[in-house]
Amino acid sequence: MGRVSGKKAIITGGAQGLGEATAKMLAREGAKVAITDINGEGAEKIAAEINAELGDGTAFAWQHDVTDGERWKTVVQEAHDAMGGLNILVNNAGIGSLGSVEDEDYAMFQKVMTVDVDSIFLGCKYAIPLMRDHGLGSIINISSIAGIIASGNYVSYNTAKAAVRHLSKSIALHCAKTGGQIRSNSVHPVFINTPILDRTKEMFGEAEALAKLGRQIPLGKVGEPDDIAYAVLYLASDESKLVTGIELKVDGGISAM
Ligand SMILES: NC(=O)c1ccc[n+]([C@@H]2O[C@H](COP(=O)([O-])OP(=O)(O)OC[C@H]3O[C@@H](n4cnc5c(N)ncnc54)[C@H](O)[C@@H]3O)[C@@H](O)[C@H]2O)c1
Predict the structure, then answer these.
(1) CB 13 within 8 Å of CB 23
(2) Does ligand 1 lie within 6 Å of residue 223's CB atom?
(3) Closest CA to 239 of 185, 191, 199
(4) Phi and psi of 145, rounded to 5°?
(5) How remote is the CA of residue 130 from the centroid of ligand 1, in Å?
(6) What is the DSSP letter of 137?
(7) 65 CA: nearest ligand 1 atom
(8) 10-residue stretch averages of pLDDT, the chain, 257 residues long
(9) Crossing angle for the helix pair 69-83 and 119-131, nearest 10 degrees?
(10) Does ligand 1 come within 6 angstroms of the Cβ of 93?
(11) CATH for 8-196+225-245?
(12) Of 58, 73, 96, 183, whose CB is crowded by the most CB atoms within 10 A?
């Protein structure tokens, strides 16, 4: 308990999946959390669950499409004011798309880039100036193992998540040079059992889908949301105060092959 005690965090895409698990983990470890999502009702539901468990004023919610730069400005300022500061930004919201360079629609390619990459540029652009006033800060960008290992039918997702990896490093070096208080790292999950896998489960049935995906991973199974939330917790806490510009792979060994 208390690994991020007193810290204030924004988590995008926090209405479900990895964002929900991360928001709950950070709150249980002592942080105040601002949960944002394009699904505003979902964000409010998770904030209410956290407040019921940990007390009112622990969690706050905003409806926010992370591709909207103007809304980013408002949300970071309002979250900062509601929580009494800002130390942690978890850029988690993201979408995937299946398709090769020949099959993928150009509009979809651009959408994935906007949601997965532009959102992080915007979030960091507007959050960093507010984070600077509050001591040690940490930016955690959720990439994917698909940002390191490519496959023929993930052209948009591979491209976007690889960009997140390098964007995180550029931000890390900029922040190191301008005061050194704020760190920036990327996290690279392998398949994790969240609603993002719903389509695969519909195609093969849940048990077969999880088994099929698990067989691709040396440790033999799909991950749980808390496997990623624990990685974010470490990077968010001051335990990792010398860690910046890294890519933390939580991948069951797949990238070791
Ligand atoms: N689950 C996995 O297997 C896995 C593996 C590697 C990386 N990731 C990455 O982790 C992150 C979270 O994934 P997840 O599995 O929890 O997915 P998910 O689909 O369960 O949840 C994503 C959340 O992001 C929100 N969102 C989508 N578009 C948005 C937008 N434009 N603005 C604001 N919110 C938006 C959704 O409403 C949803 O609540 C994503 O960036 C994803 O690419 C997931």
Answers:
(1) no
(2) no
(3) 185
(4) -65, -20
(5) 25
(6) E
(7) 32
(8) 96 99 99 98 99 98 98 98 98 97 98 99 98 94 98 98 99 96 98 95 96 98 98 98 98 97
(9) 30
(10) yes
(11) 3.40.50.720
(12) 183
Residue 74, number of CB atoms within 10 A of its CB: 13
- Is 106 considered catalytic here? no
Locus of tokens 């968010």:
236
Ligand 1 lined by 13 (C-beta under 6 Å): yes
Give the tens place of pLDDT for each residue, 185-217.
999 999 999 999 998 999 999 999 999 999 999
Q: Is 192 in the pocket of ligand 1 (CB under 6 A)?
A: yes
**Strand-pair category, 182-189 with 32-37:** unpaired
Rounded to the nearest integer, the mean pLDDT of the chain is 98
Ligand 1 pocket, mutate which of 67, 113, 194, 254 (most atoms under 8 A from CB): 194
Q: Which residues contact 188 (CB under 8 A, 6 or more apart)?
A: 143, 144, 145, 147, 148, 161, 165, 247, 248, 249, 250, 251, 255
Catalytic residue among 106, 126, 154, 157, which? 157
C-beta neighbour count of 211 within 10 angstroms = 14
